[in-house]
């Protein structure tokens, strides 16, 4: 099976236990996806999802079971100091040279508040994200030179130290708005954004490219632009909607959930989500052509890659259908 160059399979660690997550990643790899995407979670969004395994252990196991890229979305600076995130990422990159990408997120309270620290406002979370990213990238680059790093910033301190595992992955940053996207481009990092209205995505890409142009003016290239796309596919339209409402109703929430602290609170809010809420936010269809068109439209906007998440638990059926129809159709249109 030939491998897609741009479509990566999202394995939701909230929905599957660690062994099943690795099995799903291996199925997606055999089906031809470019790689697997996993996120660092301490709690699931919903109690009914039932899982939240430690991402770095699962990512290592996925690396052993697959041959594609391994993308880890991690949150530096709350449960884990940026130096620890850097060490984990460098280790995974050393184990699987050229295959690991690190995606940095400002995080959500549901995962990060558990250590009891102050949960800041969005502006401060963004500042912490970029300072943490600077520490991580300096640790990567200094390890390659065999030198130490010190840091004393507004949010983090690092005594003179270095990484002894010398893997150096590509780094991307979750961008929720144009300011974050532009800043990521200026610092030479890639971005990842959630799929949404085309005009919003175009604005984020434009801001990222403007920042990247400044970076290239210093003789450096730009990072990768990725879009995270959620869909619900099943063998019938009704089953696809049922899966979305049961397994990922958060897709239909019309407000940010970054400050919510309990899966039980999310469940109460999500109980109000109906079919129209879901349809307004993500494609829900048994017609694989609907999902092919969605992915093509995102790539046509100018994204370099797509992280594709079918929100139901019917992953084996979905992966089989992707191998037969979706991946070949998307690649044919590139």
TrEMBL record:
Residues 14-302 form the Luciferase-like domain. The keyword Metal-binding does not apply. Coiled coil: none annotated. Signal peptide: none annotated. It comes from the Bacteria. Keywords: Oxidoreductase. PANTHER family: 5,10-METHYLENETETRAHYDROMETHANOPTERIN REDUCTASE, PTHR43244. NCBIfam families: F420_G6P_family. This is TIGR03557 family F420-dependent LLM class oxidoreductase. It comes from Microbacterium soli.
